[in-house]
Design a protein that fits this description.
The complex is a heterodimer of chains A (295) and B (240). Chain A is of the alpha/beta class and 295 residues long. Chain A has 2 domains: 189 residues, Periplasmic binding protein-like II (D-Maltodextrin-Binding Protein, domain 2), CATH 3.40.190; 90 residues, D-Maltodextrin-Binding Protein, domain 2, CATH 3.40.190.10. Chain A is 40% helix and 22% strand. In chain A, strands 10-9-11-8-12 form a 5-stranded mixed sheet. A 3-stranded parallel sheet of chain A has the order 5-1-6. A 3-stranded antiparallel sheet of chain A has the order 2-3-4, with helices on one face. Chain B has 240 residues and is an all-alpha fold. Chain B has one domain: MetI-like fold. In chain B, α3 crosses α4. Chain B starts with 14 loop residues before the first helix and ends with a helix. Chains A and B meet through α4, β10 and α6 of A and α3, α4 and α9 of B.
């Protein structure tokens, strides 16, 4: 009997800690409150950010970020007491994600969004779940192994990206004369590279590997080794709702501490359903360890 | 709404310069394309009303092709497919040899597309003139070219000023599609600012106001033109 009570106590304590957010706290979070009232959570997702967030063959959003979000949503179900919480998938693009989050259309964004300080004026982020950086892709035999090799050449950059900002900065500092062509999206950039309009294209390394894996002749392309920028990805949540943000922090910290996040990582990246074949980097592993805050 | 407004961003360096550079490209693309649209459109429109059936057919084919393919698709065809159809060296020259390939591609695409719409306005304007005018002009011994130059075109161009204004406005708005092939015009710069600062609402508001300003200017100028060239008794405007 005593042991039963103890077990119950232990269970209560652990569930209290693992929940982190108490049920009364729902009132102090405008996001949790509106989720509870509607009985629906609106999840923003990307359509082609492989393998983070994309539309799978079954027509449903899937990916690494989506899986992590589902973990958080399970916790939201607990806290709001809505076991039958419905998930409403809202497709977003890099242009619409911020507006849709600001105006309250989406409650969480599960994509491939870089966490930077400027953006934190508008939105908040959960812990870093992936680390990448800008790299250059070019045709083999083009002799491009670092950014200096692009002096006097033509280069494609994703319009309005973090990458663009960084590359322009580096080129300016090094005094490189590079002609830039702005591309609207990755598939289009790939076309300009394949057709020889540009000599190299810069984007987040992980996305370049994804593009190459889908190319007609993957062996014809090469990616530079060095990261030219630091792009930590994070799940985006509405600004100024610390209760809600903390709920996400707790779920992710728990996953990082228990190592569960490594399993999710391997499912999508090693080798992953799209064959991207990216074993976890030491840097990301370290980031997981550092962010696994204790209770 | 949970949004931090910051209108100051619009006058911050370098964003203010971006907006004006974007506006500059928008005007440059639209006005250059309009030169093509107006001249080519007039020629095609006249061809569609010519006596020669061959010319009429060519005109009709042009209009149907360029009017029936979505402009966005045309942008892609010109940018990605057209250079591949040329001999390799010429294709390479189009892709990288000429200065600002994206700009010229956008101008040609927008110009040829709008030309098909202008052509239809011109044709409508000419057809709106009663057959008697054409026959009378021929009867006094004018050559076909003279019939158009002195009788048909002066009347029809005046008649079609209002729909032509719409086309002229359209070309400014459609020029925003040039961003899809990398021209950093107003909409592209706006997106750029949004991505850099996440202050999209401010940037798009500024762009909206600038577009409206430009189109109002166009409308104002076209109204002036219409007043100035109207012949009393000839058009409804002159009759009042």
């Amino acid at each position: 009997m005593k042991s039963k009570k103890l077990a119950l106590l232990a269970f209560t304590i652990t569930s209290f800690f693992s929940t982190g957010v108490m049920a009364d706290d729902v009132d102090s979070s405008f996001v949790l409150k509106r989720i509870q009232e509607r009985g629906v959570i609106n999840m923003g997702h990307r359509e082609s950010s492989v393998p983070f967030s994309y539309i799978g063959k079954e027509g449903k959003p899937m990916g690494y970020s989506i899986d992590l979000c589902h973990k958080i949503i399970n916790q939201i179900k607990e806290v709001t007491g809505k076991k039958d919480l419905k998930i409403n998938y809202v497709p977003v693009t890099s242009q619409t994600r911020i507006a849709l989050m600001s105006n309250g259309t989406i409650d969480i964004e599960c994509g491939s969004t870089t966490n930077n300080l400027t953006r934190q004026n508008q939105v908040d982020y959960l812990p870093i779940t992936f680390i990448t950086g800008a790299k250059l892709v070019s045709k083999k035999g083009s002799g491009i192994s670092k950014i200096e090799d692009l002096d006097g050449k033509i280069m494609g950059l994703p319009l309005g990206s973090n990458t663009e900002k960084i590359i322009r900065g580096i080129a300016k500092k090094k005094g490189l004369k590079i002609k830039y062509i702005m591309t609207k999206d990755h598939p289009q950039a790939w076309l300009t590279l394949e057709s020889g309009r540009i000599d190299a294209y810069a984007a987040d390394g992980v996305l370049l590997y994804g593009l190459i894996s889908k190319a007609k002749k993957p062996d014809d392309f090469q990616v530079t080794d060095k990261f030219l920028s630091y792009d930590p990805y994070g799940i985006m949540v509405p600004h100024d709702d610390s209760t809600y943000r903390r709920l996400g922090n707790v779920v992710l910290a728990d996953m990082m501490r228990s190592g569960e996040i490594l399993k999710v990582y391997d499912k999508w990246f090693n080798p992953g359903p799209t064959g991207i074949n990216m074993p976890i980097s030491n840097r990301l592993k370290m980031a997981f360890e550092l962010q696994a805050l204790p209770h | 709404m949970n949004y931090n407004w910051n209108w100051g961003i619009l006058v911050t360096d370098p964003y203010l310069a971006w907006i004006f550079s974007g506006l500059g490209w928008t005007l440059l693309v639209a006005l250059s394309a309009w030169l093509i649209a107006f001249s080519l459109g007039s020629v095609i429109g006249i061809m569609r009303t010519a006596d020669n059936p061959m010319l009429r057919t060519i005109g009709a084919i042009y209009v149907e092709i360029f009017r029936n393919i979505p402009l966005l698709v045309q942008m892609f065809l010109w940018y990605f497919i057209f250079p591949e159809l040329l001999p390799q060296e010429a294709g390479m020259w189009v892709k990288r040899g000429i200065p600002m390939p994206e700009f010229w591609t956008a101008v040609i695409c927008l110009g040829t597309y709008t030309a098909s719409r202008v052509a239809e306005q011109v044709r409508a304007g000419i057809n709106a003139i009663s057959q008697g005018q054409r026959q009378a002009a021929k009867a006094i011994g004018l050559s076909p070219a003279q019939v158009y130059r002195y009788v048909l075109l002066p009347i029809s161009y005046r008649t079609i000023i209002p729909p032509m204004t719409s086309e002229f406005l359209g070309i400014f708005k459609n020029s925003s599609l040039a961003l899809t092939i990398g021209v950093l015009e107003l909409t592209a710069q706006t997106r750029q600012i949004e991505e850099y600062t996440f202050q999209g609402f401010e940037a798009f508001t500024a762009a909206t106001i600038l577009y409206i300003f430009v189109t109002f200017m166009v409308m104002f100028i076209m109204m002036k033109v219409e007043k100035k060239v109207s012949i009393p008794g000839m058009t409804s405007l002159g009759a009042k």
